[in-house]
Design brief:
Blueprint lengths: L11 E6 L6 H14 L4 E5 L6 H5 L8 E4 L2 E5 L2 H19 L9 H6 L6 H15 L6 E5 L3 H39 L3 E4 L2 E4 L8 H20 L5 E7 L3 H16 L4 E9 L10 H17 L4 E6 L8 H12 L2
Helix pairs in contact: 1-10, 3-5, 5-6, 6-7, 6-8
Pfam family, one: ArsA_ATPase
Family: Belongs to the arsA ATPase family.
InterPro entries: ArsA/GET3_ATPase-like (IPR025723), ATPase_ArsA/GET3 (IPR016300), P-loop_NTPase (IPR027417)
Length: 330
Amino acid sequence: MREYLLPKDGFRVLFFIGKGGVGKTTSAAATSIALSKRGYKTLVVSIDPAHNLGDVLMVKLSDKPRKILENLYAMELDMEGLIQGYLKHLEKNLKHMYRYLTVINLEKYFEILRFSPGIEEYATLEAIREILMDGEKWDVIVFDTPPTGLTLRVLALPRISLIWTDRLIEIRRKILERRKAIEKIHGERKFIVKGREYKLPSDEKEDSVMKELKKYREEIEFVHKVITNPEKTTVVAVMNPEMLPLHETERAYESLNKFKIPFRLIIINKVLELEEVPPKLKVKIEAQKRVLELAKSKFKGIDLVKIPMFEEEPRGLEWLERIGGIIVGT
C-alpha cells in the first residue's frame, strides 16, 4: 500500500492534476473509493469547471457533500457561483475598510474587480481553503482539479500571496506611522460621511485595513502550510503514455518543486498491454514504450503506476474500485 496516500497526523490531501482527457477524474474517483473501502472517511471534490465527477460515479452531485458509499462523499463546486461569491465578499470588505472614501464614488472601481486577471484562481483558492478549514471532518480529501495550467497557478498562489501580503503590511505600517506623526502636529483627522463621523485610523489595532491584511495572511499561511507539508499533501499527476502529456507532467513537476509542494505519484493511464500485437499497433506500442522509459529516467524517486487500457470505459463503482486498488496498492 502506498503510505503517502494515507492520512498521517490528521487528514491527508490529494490533488489530482493533468491534461484534460487523460483520466484524471476517473483516477481521483477510483482512489477515493479504494481509500473509503479501507475504512478512511473520504471526500472527493471536483473543482474543475467542466465537471464530470458525477458522470464517473454515475450520480448527480452538487456543492454539498453527497454520500456515495460507506465512508465516501462527493461534491462538485459551482465555480461561477464561487467567483461571484468571492467578488461580493471582496467588495463588501473593501467598502467597509474604505467607507470614509465613498464620497469619491468607489462603486465603479469595485465593478472593475469582476474583470481583473487572476479572479478565477483566487476564487478557486478560497474554495480550497474553506474545505481545508473543515479538514478534520475527513481522513482524506481528494481534489479533482482543472487542467494543469490553472491548477499550478492556484497551487502557487499561497506562496506568492504571502510575499505580496507581507509587502502590503509593511507599506500599510509606514502609512500609519506617517499618520501618527501628522496627528502629533495637527491633531486627529476626522471625516463626516453621510452624517456619520469617522476618525482616520493611525494605530494598527484600530485600522481595519491592517486587520484585514493580517487576517488574510493568517488564512493564506494556513493553506500554504497544508499544501507544502509532505505529511499532509501529495500531488498525483495523471498522464497518458504519449509525449505531449509527458512534457506537461515534467513542467508541472518542475513548477511544484519550485514551490515546495510534494509530488509523489504519476499515474500512466491507458497503457496498451497486448499478448499479440497487431501490425497496425506496433508503432503505437513502441511509442508507448519510449514514453514509459523516458518517464522512468525523468522522474527518479517518483512512484509510477501503470493503468492498462481496458476493453470498456471504466464507469461505475465496481470498475472504479478495481482501478483504485491498482493506484493505492495492497
